[in-house]
UniProtKB/TrEMBL annotation:
UniProt key word 4Fe-4S: no
Annotated Pfam families: TPP_enzyme_C, TPP_enzyme_M, TPP_enzyme_N
The keyword Repeat is annotated on this UniProt entry: no
Originating organism: Listeria weihenstephanensis
Superkingdom to which the source organism belongs: Bacteria
GO MF entries: magnesium ion binding; pyruvate oxidase activity; thiamine pyrophosphate binding
Family: Belongs to the TPP enzyme family.
Residue ranges of every copy of the Thiamine pyrophosphate enzyme TPP-binding domain listed in the record: 382-528
EC number: 1.2.3.3
Domain Thiamine pyrophosphate enzyme central, residue spans: 193-322
Database matches in PROSITE patterns: TPP_ENZYMES
Protein name: Pyruvate oxidase
Gene3D superfamilies in the cross-refs: 3.40.50.970, TPP-binding domain
Keyword entries, A-Z: Oxidoreductase, Pyruvate, Thiamine pyrophosphate
Length: 577
């Protein structure tokens, strides 16, 4: 056993877990950790971001992509507070994360010292493991337990570390390298498979709703769907799990879902919920409809929808077992009807993509994205209308990845996600798609991408407003208020950061900007003046929304004394009936 500084021992534990990079910002109370990382910079890269929120959002995205734990650090007080948003993103999307936060020295603890914030209390709700270190000797063991717990509970482990503790010399033996944490999968009961197979055999209109829990079971999902001729619908973050161009695919469900998905759910006589915890139960069938739910977590079975048969276990194993337990079905009228419906839907979308107008239609932008995208592009998507356009118009296959802040739904996630994607897969093309509001929350970190030589394409759909909220206000029958954003030239900003920038104001400039961006070896921003009247209408407009729009129109005339620009009537009619 040799003597070493506690901070060195901490870094050794990180190395043992194969952690090869950390996002963060240095400063007083965390400087000792940063110094220990400096000495190990050949093994652990320190990615110095410009805002701690970006550090945790990037760490969360890295884990969503790779399954490996993401790590972020910051000083105590303000730095720790800035990290909260990305920590919640990890918590809500169930991904492991390790956060190291500095703290004032123990000699002044609890004296209302400069930057002293009660961090364990602050992190109570967000963390699955949340300890303030009190003794240098136990620090390495606690770091190890923190990482194990984050993997085990798929959540955030936080260590708050007073700076003086890190300077203490401790006795420490460098532990043997850890294998990456393997979770034991529950054994699937043969009885549940047999019961599920019976339900599948007697169903006429079965429909699958697949979520991110199916990510590792993509091929099995396709095989099962083809074997039983069952249409597949996904939850939004599961985009890419079923190839968009697969004939059995009906898109995603909900407000920004497709009309065929909505209608198939209405007509279903058997719902197969696979690896999801879909919250918008209004979009699910009537509760009397039979259902099979597959989930590794028994607590999820029947949580949102009564499960006639629950299969606790791994989605891939369950789907493989179900293929074996059921007969091949050659044709199914319900699937064919859904496919016809879907053909219509694609026809409408292709009409949208073909728009050549100025101001530019966001749908036309998506068509350009598709043209320059590689087969294995990683898409990192923000929250706003960019979510709708990307989800609806991008055609993803099994080699793509689609990053999003699914359950927290935080604006500003696209750029940190793109940084993490480039860190995880430097050779793959990375495209971030974001609104001007979302991008301007984190734009300072474009310079991080430039500094670390992370070529990426950031598409800013610049409509000079919080468009998603504009339509939210309208569909709720409220008047529009506080949604305008000043016009920023994001292309000039890109250049001032040392990247490349293209400002696209007319449709004619669109294609050449995308071609140039595709060939660039620097991070690029394509700042596109998109039509602010492009309405991200729901795939299926439900009665409440239709009434909300009508109320908004009446209030615009009577209270604001003006006619507002409504979404095109043709689209409203198509989506309503
Ligand atoms: C951090 C955060 N603040 C507020 C919101 C609520 N919100 C959702 S979408 C949106 C508007 C997004 O605007 P922008 O990025 O410009 O995209 P647009 O809808 O205009 O395309 C807002 C304010 C949020 N999801 N996250
Ligand atoms: Mg906007």
């Amino acid at each position: 056993m040799s003597k070493m500084k506690a901070s060195t021992a901490l870094v050794n534990v990180l190395k043992n877990w194969d952690i090869d990079h950390v996002y963060g910002i240095p400063g007083d109370s965390i400087d000792t950790v940063v110094d220990a990382l400096r000495k190990e910079q050949d093994t652990i890269k320190f990615i110095h971001v410009r805002h701690e929120e970006v550090a945790t959002l990037a760490a969360s995205s890295y884990t969503k992509l790779t399954g490996k734990i993401g790590v972020a650090l910051a000083i105590g007080g303000p730095g720790a507070i800035h990290m909260l948003n990305g920590m919640y993103d990890a918590k809500m999307d169930n991904v492991p994360m390790l956060v190291l936060a500095g703290q004032v020295p123990t000699s002044v603890a609890n004296t209302k010292y400069f930057q002293e914030v009660d961090l364990p209390t602050l992190f109570t709700d967000v963390a699955v493991f949340n300890k303030q270190i009190e003794d240098a000797e136990t620090l390495p063991d606690i770091v190890d337990v923190a990482i194990r717990t984050a993997y085990e509970k798929k959540g955030v482990a936080v260590l708050t570390i007073p700076n003086d503790i890190l300077l203490t010399e401790i006795n420490h033996t460098v532990a043997a390298k850890q294998e990456v944490f393997q979770q034991v999968k529950p054994e699937i009961s043969t009885e549940s498979i047999a019961q599920a197979a019976e339900l599948i055999k007697s169903a006429k209109n079965p429909v699958i709703l697949a979520g991110v829990g199916t990510k590792h079971a993509k091929e099995a999902l396709v095989q099962f769907s083809e074997h039983t001729k069952t249409p597949v619908i996904i939850s939004l973050p599961a985009k890419g799990i079923m190839p968009d161009d697969h004939p059995n695919f009906l898109g995603n469900l909900g407000k920004i879902g497709t009309k065929p998905a909505y209608e198939a759910m209405q007509d279903a006589d058997l719902l197969l919920m696979i690896g999801n915890d879909y919250p918008y139960t209004d979009y699910l069938p009537q509760e009397s409809v039979k259902s099979i739910q597959i989930d590794i977590d028994p607590a999820k079975i029947g949580h949102r929808f009564p499960a006639t048969v629950g299969i606790v276990g791994d989605a891939k194993e369950a789907l493989t077992a179900l293929i074996e337990a059921t007969d091949y079905i050659a044709t199914r009228a319900f699937l064919e009807a859904s496919q016809e419906n879907m053909a219509n839907w694609w026809k409408w979308l292709r009409e949208d993509e073909a728009k050549t107008t100025t101001p530019i239609a966001p749908e036309a932008v998506m068509a350009q994205v598709q043209k320059i995208a590689d087969k294995d592009t990683i898409f990192s998507i923000d929250v706003g209308t960019s979510t709708v356009w990307s989800t609806r118009y991008l055609h993803l296959g099994h080699h793509n990845d689609f990053l999003i802040s699914a359950w927290l739904g935080t604006m500003g996630c696209a750029l940190p996600g793109a940084i993490a994607a480039k860190q995880a897969f430097p050779d793959r093309q990375v495209i971030a798609i974001t609104g001007d509001g979302g991008f301007s929350m984190v734009m300072q970190d474009f310079v991080t991408a430039v500094g670390y030589k992370m070529p990426m394409i950031v598409i800013v759909l610049n409509n000079k407003e919080l468009s998603f909220i504009k339509y939210e206000q309208q569909s709720a029958g409220e008047l529009n208020y506080a949604i305008d954003l000043p016009d920023i030239n994001y292309a000039q900003f890109a250049e001032s950061c040392g990247g490349l920038g293209f400002r696209v104001e007319t449709f004619d400039e669109l294609e050449s900007a995308f071609k140039a961006a595709r060939n660039a070896s620097l991070p690029v921003i394509i700042d596109i003046a998109v039509d602010s009247n492009a309405a991200p209408l729901p795939g299926k407009i439900v009665m409440d929304e239709a009434l909300g729009y009508t109320k908004f129109e009446i209030r615009s005339i009577t209270e604001d004394h003006r006619f507002s620009k409504m979404p095109p009537l043709k689209t409203i009619i198509r989506r309503f009936f």
